[in-house]
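job 3f2a | input accepted
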Amino acid sequence: MVVGNMSPNCVVLILAGFAVIMTATGEEAAGNRMYLAVFDHRYSATYIEWIETKKPLQNETLFSISYASLDHHWTALAVDYHTGNVTFHDKENHWIFLSDDFVLEDNGTAYSIEGGTSGRVNGLAIDWLAKNVYWVDEGYNWIKMTNYTGGGEVVIADVGFEKPSGIACHPSQGYLFWTELGDKYPPKIERSTMAGNNRITIVDGLTEPRSIAVDTILDRIYWTDNNATAIKVESSDLDGNGRRTEISEPKSLGVFDSIAVDEDYIYVVLHHISLDNIIRYYKKAAPNELVYEYNVGTAVKLLDLCVAGPNIQSQPVTSPCDGNTCGHYCVSAANNNHECLCRDNYVLHPNGTCSIDLTTYQQPFCVIGRTNSISSFHPTLLHYDLPYKAEYIFEILSGTSVAIDVTAIAIDIHSNLMFFADDSQNKIFYARMEGGEYPVAIHEYGTGRIDGMAVDWLPENLILYYVDYVKETRGSLRYDGESLNIQYDVTKPTSIAIDPFARYMFWTEETSPAKVVRSDLDFTNRRELTDIGLQNPTGMTVDLKQKRIYIVGSDSTMIYSINYDGTIKEIIGRSKYPAIDITIYQDFMLLAEPYNSTSGIVEAIHISTGEHEGSINVNSSITAIEFADESTQPVPIPTTKVAAMTTVAKSPNDESSSIVLIGGVGGAVVVIIILLIVIICVVLTKRSKRPEPRQEPFARDGPHPNVAAVNVIEPPTYESIATGNETNIIDKKDLGKKEGFDNALYMTCLPPPRYSPSPVNTPATDTEYVDLNVNAPTVPNVTYNRNLFS
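job 3f2a | predicted structure (790 res):
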């Protein structure tokens, strides 16, 4: 079986020597199948292997190879035993596929059900009762779900992640499990409902829990964990209790990776210290006893493993989603119940139907300044294997009487505000990111040029910072435009970024050599951090998690990184073209790269590896970039401390104290009377000196203001909801023209529509054989040709 427009071969793999051990212990449960995602370095080919674990064994064991490809790279898989569907992820092209019945003797086809992954999907889980697929995306730090038909996607969880890895589910109990490998969020195992509710940590104290599996028969979870001294398989019940070590091997052996369980065995992939890839079988009844193993060598990389069977995936007479009335998705819940979910950007109604909210823009989204406009797109567009990506970049603001020239953008996602500097009018504007809102000018800078802006989004602050390249100043404004501070201590400043938690401001100066400077947010304690290898630094951003600054320039493709005190400076990647601006989202740097006066690209580069992970040609010049998502602007959860009223007994001999604390009922009455008197005095004073109220866009005191009431389209039935490109149903009303803008702000773009690449096919002809234990054959026994695997 092959992917894309492949003219596929069905290849059968002979694994000699495997049957000898299995024959001696052949107790596998009837009907179970093992599946492997494999990458063969000898041919740069990827494929899926499977075998009937109970099939008659003779002198050799046959693994069927399907969906072989030279142009894809499978990294994870999951299986529905009853339908024969196998889902697998393509790292190379960022797609998730779902096959037809995997054991059909005639043609088998796999279709894409989701696209635009980060490429770092290392875990998939399948809900065989509700027919849904779940995956963890390490690059975007979220868990998502879609159904077998690929009718959209739902975010199950997208906060509190640093490096999510493994995922598994127990549909009949309504549970979803996953592992976290991070440092900020310590390694652990979490659990939620299949809809993502009631999320809790059930296992902690781990080191590297890469993979997880569920024993649906015994109601236990199994996971791998690798630490400094041992590699282990552990287990617990579904609540994290009854934890025990099942398998423990010395660290010198290598690392445990993928894991699966059935009625009899624990299956685990061992990446040996010698670089060999080994499949190990341990008896569940005596798990420290290795039953057998098979070494496929160093040329074949085992990327994922799973086992499916009729008892492992029990099928009730009626499934929880039979006869459901959900508008978009039905997911399994405990006790054969179900829950309804809606696709991203939709609102769920009590009757299970879904409707889109047209008044506000749903995060996450990326905003770019372009020729005479500001536009936005969903971040997954960067990774989609789509033709004509620019069609899915949505213009949200444009000029008419004058051509707007955006030089800087800043966003406060909590206040739902976007700020931008327009050099054609020499003004800073803000606009609410809601349907029908026009920009409002809050600051005019005359002959200057604002090259960088940043916001302090914390509720108690709400301040906009900027640098003016021409006037050589840095300053700050309240969100309503009230000037707070302006300093003339900079030389040709070109970009600015802040950390509101560390209370630092950073900026670049176009000196010779160019440098990075830091001060406190109150403009004091100015300190030059370091020189950088750029002549024209043009953009910078702060990584709050890593406490680092990333800097780009128009004279180089190098991306520089420095720490907050400037003592560590390094080059962490290179862009395709010199970049004018940079922002970050999750594990990616997003760079705005104009390569001539009329064209430019947005490029995604992985922060840790520097790998190029996708791009978009925006078909116009690009001047600025910013990202909008709550993950990029975290807000601390407020804690309220209640001071207790305490009665202190003063010693008669204690003459040094002059403080009297009032306690008891009488003291409380006195305090209340005093407070009433103070309140009355304040009210009378305010009545006599009441100033004219200030017209502020929002309050500066207290928490961020709530977005105005959502105008929801209430559908009588699900069928009344548009299911195609949702922007077609948005009515852009002509509200008049203000400040030279062609239209009010309309945040209309959604994730790319459901676009599918060519499906994968597999005929049952042209069978070939290869033994993975020997070197690559001198004659091409496996015909990996480009015309077959395209």
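job 3f2a | Helices lie at 18-25, 664-688.
job 3f2a | closed
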